[in-house]
């Protein structure tokens, strides 16, 4: 025991008493529909690898070739040790895919949001953010030191009231997730874009979970809502549907040059490995070349969604492969997650502060690689659990 441990034990005890305490679990296999945990083979229903690209042979081979050519580490930040070809090629490919002039990659979605928002706004500005925005968005807003106002989730009327009452500022930002990670619902992007135009604001969209999943071509929530031409820049991640790691911002060449010179999370951090950029290029090519992956994803989503609804389980207003089963009580949610684990399903309970108090849930995520047998086993597990306890 360390002499400083008594400083931390009260907080850990408090979290434990509230059923909020977490721990890291060691998974003994690759990210796939089936994983090995504590020597047992389980069905993984908690991965954002929506298209099943994280373990694709072509993606792994692209990373391996880049390691052989460029090594493991990049050495320093890109403005110090230089940009390696895979980083440049990835940004060109992302810009082309998104029909944008330019793109800039970051080490993670968290870093992208911190860098983007703290570059866009300052103390003389105001940010209006959806209540359910990702933590990285809220932290980026706070880091900017702009005035921060929260509008009710997806509530366009409340947002407009706040816009009408806002003080005189240099710049107004309206910030939202495109697809909300814990509820699986889409932001009303068309209405938000209209308000941004009407009140001379900038609409900033975090499309982490929409990228590769939403829209006719998988370009994301903006494509799905028909507002790609109305939103001048947005952020998305590479570690979900694309199966790799990192994040991007796309926009005009001028805007990307602005970020290169102002985003501290780009300026002052070592570049991600070239191998990761090369793997992402391969994943992006697969995404565009194999639209049947998205078709399988949505077919699987519909099977599981309809099965859960028929049981009478309470789901959010999801419009995506994210299917949150609302349990409510934290202790009950933990019990359901454990019962699922005993039945061969890995789907941890999502509890505060990740979601609001009283809305703990089992957040199921479907992928293109799940089989019908996987989904049937999940549904049978829930049916079995429902027979012994009330979840509705």
Automatic annotation (TrEMBL):
InterPro entries in the record: Aminotrans_II_pyridoxalP_BS, Aminotransferase_I/II_large, AON_synthase_class-II, AONS_Archaea/Proteobacteria, PyrdxlP-dep_Trfase, PyrdxlP-dep_Trfase_major, PyrdxlP-dep_Trfase_small
Cofactor(s), names only, from the UniProt record: pyridoxal 5'-phosphate
Gene Ontology biological process terms in this record: biotin biosynthetic process
Catalysed transformations (reactions): 6-carboxyhexanoyl-[ACP] + L-alanine + H(+) = (8S)-8-amino-7-oxononanoate + holo-[ACP] + CO2
Family annotation (CDD domains): KBL_like (cd06454)
GO molecular function list: 8-amino-7-oxononanoate synthase activity; pyridoxal phosphate binding
Highest taxon, organism lineage: Bacteria
Keywords, alphabetical: Biotin biosynthesis, Pyridoxal phosphate, Transferase
Pfam family, one: Aminotran_1_2
Role of this protein: Catalyzes the decarboxylative condensation of pimeloyl-[acyl-carrier protein] and L-alanine to produce 8-amino-7-oxononanoate (AON), [acyl-carrier protein], and carbon dioxide.
Protein name: 8-amino-7-ketopelargonate synthase
């Amino acid at each position: 025991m360390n002499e400083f441990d008594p400083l931390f034990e009260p907080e850990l005890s408090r979290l434990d008493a509230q059923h909020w305490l977490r721990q890291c679990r060691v998974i003994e296999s690759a990210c796939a529909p089936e994983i090995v945990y504590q020597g047992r083979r389980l069905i993984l229903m908690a991965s954002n690898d929506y298209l099943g690209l994280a373990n694709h042979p072509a993606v792994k081979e692209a990373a391996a070739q880049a390691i052989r050519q460029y090594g493991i580490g990049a050495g320093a930040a890109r403005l110090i040790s230089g940009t390696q070809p895979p980083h440049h090629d990835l940004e060109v490919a992302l810009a082309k895919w998104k029909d944008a002039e330019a793109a800039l990659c970051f080490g993670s979605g968290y870093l992208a949001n911190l860098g983007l928002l703290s570059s866009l706004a300052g103390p003389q500005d105001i940010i209006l953010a959806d209540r359910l925005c990702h933590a990285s968005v809220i932290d980026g807003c706070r880091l900017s030191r702009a005035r921060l106002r929260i509008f009710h989730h997806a509530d366009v009327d409340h947002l407009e009231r706040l816009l009408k009452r806002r003080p005189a500022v240099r710049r107004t930002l309206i910030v939202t997730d495109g697809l909300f990670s814990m509820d699986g619902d889409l932001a009303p992007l068309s209405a938000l874009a209209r308000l941004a135009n009407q009140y001379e604001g900038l609409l900033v969209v975090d499309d982490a979970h929409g990228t590769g999943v939403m829209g006719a071509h998988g370009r994301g929530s903006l494509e799905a809502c028909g507002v790609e031409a109305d939103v001048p820049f947005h952020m998305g991640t590479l570690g979900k549907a694309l199966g790799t790691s990192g994040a991007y911002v796309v926009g005009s060449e001028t805007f990307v040059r602005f970020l290169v010179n102002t985003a501290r999370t780009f300026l002052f951090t070592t570049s991600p490995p070239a191998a990761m950029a090369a793997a992402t290029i391969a994943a992006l090519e697969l995404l565009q070349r194999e639209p049947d992956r998205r078709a399988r994803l949505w077919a699987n989503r519909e099977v599981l969604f309809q099965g859960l609804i028929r049981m009478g389980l309470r789901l959010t207003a999801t419009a995506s492969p994210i299917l949150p089963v609302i349990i409510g009580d934290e202790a009950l949610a933990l019990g359901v997650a454990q019962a699922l684990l005993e039945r061969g399903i890995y789907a941890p309970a999502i509890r505060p502060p990740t979601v609001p108090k009283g809305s703990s849930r089992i957040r199921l995520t479907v992928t293109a690689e799940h089989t019908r047998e996987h989904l049937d086993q999940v549904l049978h597990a829930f049916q079995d659990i429902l027979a012994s306890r009330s979840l509705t």
